[in-house]
Write a structure and sequence with these properties.
The protein has 113 residues and is of the alpha/beta class. Helix content is 39%, strand content 18%. The chain has one domain: Rossmann fold, CATH 3.40.50.720. A four-stranded parallel sheet has the order 3-2-1-4, with helices on both faces. The longest helix has 15 residues.
């Protein structure tokens, strides 16, 4: 694959990516690392996020974290900051999947999305 971006475009930057155990968010995290960023990824599954972090390459770490638990999110952000320094990029792509019209969702389901 031909690189479109300068491989040092994000050198010295820190990225925090939620919902990154698979799919688009994992791929974005991989591209951040390929552009030189240090990356922390979070997702609910410890096993999946460990595998995802290993697949990213570069300087990446993963942590199990449910974004609905604000205390755990604060812990994850603090861990990222302690490990890598100031966070420059946040991609909050974690979400619940509810097959319902927005107006038909419960308050809890809406909060989860």
């Amino acid at each position: 694959m031909t690189e479109t971006f300068n491989p040092d475009l994000l050198a010295g930057k820190v990225a925090f990516v939620a919902g990154a155990s698979s799919g688009i968010n994992l791929r974005v995290a991989q591209r951040y690392a390929a552009a030189g960023a240090k990356v922390m990824v979070i997702s609910r599954s410890a096993e999946k996020i460990t595998e995802a972090a290993a697949s990213i390459g570069g300087d990446a770490i993963g942590m199990a974290c449910d974004v609905r638990d604000y205390g755990k999110v604060a812990e994850a952000l603090a861990h990222c900051h302690d490990r890598f320094g100031e966070i420059d990029i946040v991609l909050s792509g974690a979400a619940g999947n509810f097959l319902a019209p927005a107006l038909g969702m419960s308050a809890n389901a809406f909060k989860t999305v």
